[in-house]
Amino acid sequence: MKKLILLFILISLLFSCRQKSVKKDSEITTQGNVSTTISTDIAKLAKLTNLKEFKPTHVKFKYIFIDNSGKNERLTVPGPSDSNLEAVLYFDEATFEKMRIKYFNTDYVSPGFDKNSFNFDWLDKKIKEEFLKNDINYHGDPDYVFGGSCKLWLLNDKLLLTMARN
After folding, report:
1. What is residue 83's DSSP assignment?
2. CA gap 20, 146 in Å, rounded
3. Nearest by Cα to 26 from 156, 122, 147
4. How far apart are CA 96 and CA 92, in angstroms?
5. Separation in Å, CA 52 to CA 80, 145, 157
6. Which of 154, 153, 158 is nearest to 90 (CA)?
7. Buried b (16+ CB within 10 A) or exposed e, 79-96
8. Distance between CA atoms of 97 and 118, rounded to whole angstroms?
9. What are 135-165's pLDDT values in tens digits?
């Protein structure tokens, strides 16, 4: 009987040690070769896009990484990995105004962006409402502010950013 109790205690200890640690500001989920990160960590976002010139006061983002390196059994021929970033960046008034001026002073003008591509499903209700009421007439310049491959949608002292790499 003592051996059975001891065995039960050992098994309980093993399972308690294997519990998944929960990070304070982010959640990373992995399914197959796809990992999804939702975070509010500015340092993590800075690794994904250029935040050196205009640093936000706080952020929230969703990053999806599809690993096509061939480590997953479903792939017979490895290829380049894909990623998608959706973010909302908040700025103080002075920084936002400097960024807005630089953004609108670019020489290149492209067609307007599809507004639906910025309607992120994870946005807070208040931001979604502001976004849906927002004027779309001035959104269309490419982003030279955060690395050249991003698309931006400016709101009041914050912006929505999307970037896809394949």
Report:
1. E
2. 34
3. 122
4. 6
5. 27, 10, 18
6. 158
7. eeeeeebbbbbbbeeebb
8. 21
9. 665 555 556 667 667 888 888 889 898 888 7
From residue 45, alpha-carbon distances to 18, 68, 115 in Å are 29, 22, 23
Residue reference for tokens 């021929």 = 77
DSSP β-bridge partners for residue 37: 28, 63
Q: Where are the alpha helices (DSSP H) in 34-165?
A: 42-46, 93-104, 125-133
pTM of the model: 0.73
DSSP, res 117: G
pLDDT tens string 80-132: 778 899 999 999 999 999 888 877 766 555 556 778 888 999 999 999 999 98
